[in-house]
Design brief:
alpha/beta, Rossmann fold, Quinone Oxidoreductase, Chain A, domain 1, seven-stranded mixed β-sheet, 11 helices, 2 domains, six-stranded parallel β-sheet, 15 strands
């Protein structure tokens, strides 16, 4: 028997239940881990509320990130043994491979032996944020030392990961946050410049910072009206990578800027990296090297015990966090 989190209908955090179930062992090609910590992601709140790209079958589990100890390995799995300390690359389907539980099973290719220096909480906070940022900035945009890169929703775990990755290769990260309340924390986290978009003119501030060179790379999960000032501040041949849709307002197409500057607007999901073995191996190597050298360092906003999963989801939806929310098991 093992405790798991499941939900029987879409809704707010209160629909989450902790239940005891018979946990089956791993199938061929899978690894089962005894979970010590979970990393929370906005995708899990979207699945729970019924607005995610995946549709649950009730009762449904959820969860994309975990760290723990290998409990058992399925047939055909090499390289892992019971007792190994591991963390999990987010699976393409969290309904098929849910992480929220005392025991969780994943495809072996998504299981990673992380650096021993990482504690359970940090290890559970690694893969979603760094894979997402790596895929956009390094794999797709080919970020360079000479680049300005704008990171919106910068206080999210992915935003902070993007700042760290930009710094690791010598690019100049410009963090965009809504109000000035998180400016000092973002500067301390490595942003070279911070813009409070609700209090400052975003286009003017970007022009002041970058001068005639402009911004070559924009990394945005928001969409909505922010598209126009972002595009207006971009360099000729620049790329805007959109990996979310947090804005509830329509997203305008910045036709004039796109045409006059030959811009690329690129939709992106981390599934592109996870679903491509060669790209995933390159991402793992980059991230593990950064973790070992200290250039990449997960920032934990707050930890909750497993029994407070409802409260953890409420905090996730509050937008008050700075970094990753982690649940300990």
């Amino acid at each position: 028997m093992a405790r798991v989190v499941r939900f029987y209908q879409n809704g707010g955090p209160e629909v989450l239940r902790i239940e005891n179930i018979d946990a089956p062992g791993p199938r061929q090609g899978e690894v089962q881990i005894r979970v010590r910590a979970l990393g929370l992601n906005r995708a899990e709140a979207l699945l729970r509320s019924g607005s995610y790209i995946e549709t649950p079958s009730f009762p449904s589990g959820l969860g994309l990130e975990a760290a723990g100890i290998v409990e058992a390995v399925g047939e055909g799995v090499d390289g892992f043994a019971p007792g190994d300390a591991v963390s999990i690359v987010p699976p393409i389907s969290m309904v098929r491979w849910p992480a929220y539980g005392e025991l969780a099973t994943f495809p072996a290719e998504l299981v990673v032996k992380h650096p021993p220096s990482l504690g359970w909480e940090a290890a559970a906070a690694v893969w979603m944020q760094y894979l997402t940022a790596y895929g956009a900035l390094i794999d797709i945009a080919q970020l360079r030392r000479t680049d300005f890169v704008v990171v919106t929703a910068a206080s999210s775990s992915v935003g902070l990961a993007a700042i760290q990755i930009a710094n690791s290769i010598g690019a100049t990260p410009i963090a965009v946050t809504r109000t000035s309340g998180k400016v000092s924390a973002l500067l301390e986290a490595g942003a070279t410049h911070v813009i409070a978009s609700a209090e400052e003119d975003l286009e003017v501030r970007l022009a002041d910072i970058t001068g005639p060179e402009g911004v070559r790379v924009v990394f945005d999960p928001i969409g909505g009206p922010i598209f126009e000032p972002l595009a207006a501040a971009m360099a000729r041949g620049g790329i805007l990578i959109e990996y979310g849709g947090l804005s509830h307002e329509p997203t305008p197409f910045p036709l004039s800027s796109v045409l006059s500057k030959s811009l690329t607007l690129r939709g992106y999901l981390v599934h592109e990296i996870v679903g491509d073995p060669a790209r995933l191996e390159a991402a793992k190597a980059f991230i593990l090297k950064g973790l070992e050298e200290g250039a990449l360092r997960p920032i934990i906003a707050r930890t909750f015990p497993f029994e407070q999963i409802v409260e953890a989801h409420r905090f996730l939806e509050s937008n008050e966090q700075f970094g990753k929310i982690v649940v300990t098991v």
